[in-house]
Amino acid sequence: MTRKIIENKAQCKKCQDIIQSKSTIELKRCSCGSIAVDGGLDYIKRLGNLDDIIELTKYEGDEIMAEEKVEYCTCEKLERVYTDMDDFGYWNVCDLCGKIVENTYEYFDELND
Ligand SMILES: [Zn+2]
Ligand SMILES: [Zn+2]
C-alpha cells in the first residue's frame, strides 16, 4: 500500500536548506546545489548527493501512528500512583514504571459542572 504524501521535502546537510517540491514537475535545488527534490505529492524523487539528504517527508497517517504510541502501565499491582495534569485535565501515573494508568483521565470541566 502506498501512503499518501503530505509534504515532499528534505534538508541539505551542507547548507541546511529545507527544500520542498509542491507539484509533480517542481524540481527544487538547495542553495549549495548538492541535493534536489522532485515529484510533488505524487512520488518522492531525490537528486544529487544522496548522502547529504536529511529526509523530512511527511505521509498521511504519521500523526495518528504517533498518538497510538502512548504506553500505559501494565504493572500487575498498582502500588503507588501520583497525579499528573495538563491544561485540560488530570490522570494517574504509576510510580513504579512512570507510565500512564489507562482510563484515569478526568477533565477539569466535568468537576466544575
Ligand atoms: Zn545544500
Ligand atoms: Zn506501572
Short characterization:
The protein is 10% helix and 34% strand. With 113 residues, it is mainly β. Strands 3-2-7 form a three-stranded antiparallel beta sheet, with no helix packed on it.
Please provide a written account of the structure.
By secondary structure, the protein is mainly beta. It has two domains: 5-66, no CATH class; 70-112, no CATH class. The protein has two helices and eleven strands; from the N terminus they run E-E-E-E-E-E-E-E-H-E-E-E-H. The protein has helices at residues 62-67, 108-112, and strands spanning 5-7, 9-12, 18-20, 28-29, 35-38, 45-48, 53-55, 58-59, 81-85, 89-94, 106-107. The strands form four sheets. A three-stranded antiparallel sheet has the order 3-2-7, with no helix packed on it. It has a three-stranded antiparallel sheet with strand order 4-5-6, with no helix packed on it. Strand 2 and strand 3 form a beta hairpin. The radius of gyration is 22 Å and the shape is elongated. Bound molecules: zinc ion (2 copies). The site of one zinc ion (ZN) has 6 residues, from loops. One zinc ion binds next to loops.
